[in-house]
Predict the 3D structure of the following.
Amino acid sequence: MLPVNYGGHAAYQDTFVSQFLELFPDPFAVPKETLDSIVKFWYLDLSETDTIMQEFYSLLGKPATRFPFCLLRSYLLSIVLKVDPLPDGAGCLK
């Protein structure tokens, strides 16, 4: 079952800002190439992915724990940062 996405891209941006500042109190310490990727993904609205993928989710059972747009964003980010997404990428992206 597909989870309900309240807030869409704006909610992602709010969550990102709060978590990013917790991890990196000094954003200028982050390498420029990484910051460039962050800016690209900040503006990349993938929330329509949920609508496209909805028919592939079962109506039965527990809701999924991750939104399709979150999974797609993580995968694309791992490609951009040249990180093997499974399993090493999960730790690096976190």
